[in-house]
């Protein structure tokens, strides 16, 4: 357990005694992975190369090519910045409900013991939306727009 060590909790917070919270063991590694993936390169002035370049893909389409690029960027970042793990696999899948969310499944083994783990990190892209054609959107002065305006302005009549 000496190899993993202890460190500041992220986000920085206090514990029940009012001291700065520390984490150790497996939790330290999980928080470190989340910190690496949540930091964009260039975000830290004193360590500009630290982080993962997945943030450059926020506006990329949610497709297989983007998923492959995300897996590559995660692998490169974790192999460089987290020496306490052996990265076994990075699998990127698509969420069935939210078309803008990709799930990054990171499978790793703690180096000081043969203990396989995984961490699922959600990554959000901006989903593409179909923009309606100009003709389909009523414009002021269009006959369809005028009819809609008259229907809104007309009082409702009761049917006897």
From TrEMBL:
<protein>
    <recommendedName>
        <fullName>IraD/Gp25-like domain-containing protein</fullName>
    </recommendedName>
</protein>
<feature type="domain" description="IraD/Gp25-like">
    <location>
        <begin position="26"/>
        <end position="114"/>
    </location>
</feature>
<dbReference type="Pfam" id="PF04965">
    <property type="entry name" value="GPW_gp25"/>
</dbReference>
<dbReference type="InterPro" id="IPR007048">
    <property type="entry name" value="IraD/Gp25-like"/>
</dbReference>
């Amino acid at each position: 357990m000496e190899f993993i060590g202890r460190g500041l909790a992220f986000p920085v917070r206090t514990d029940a005694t009012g001291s700065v919270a520390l984490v150790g063991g497996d939790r330290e590694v999980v928080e470190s992975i989340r910190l690496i993936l949540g930091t964009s390169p260039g975000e830290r002035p004193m360590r500009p190369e630290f982080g993962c370049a997945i943030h450059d893909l926020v506006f990329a389409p949610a497709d297989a090519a983007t998923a492959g690029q995300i897996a590559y960027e995660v692998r490169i970042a974790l192999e460089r910045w987290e020496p306490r793990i052996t990265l076994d696999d990075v699998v990127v899948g698509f969420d069935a409900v939210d078309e803008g969310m990709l799930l990054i499944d990171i499978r790793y083994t703690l180096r000081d013991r043969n203990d396989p783990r995984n961490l699922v990190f959600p990554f959000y892209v901006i989903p593409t939306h179909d923009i309606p054609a100009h003709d389909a959107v009523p414009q002021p002065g269009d006959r369809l727009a005028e009819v809609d305006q008259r229907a809104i302005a007309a009082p409702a009549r009761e049917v006897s």
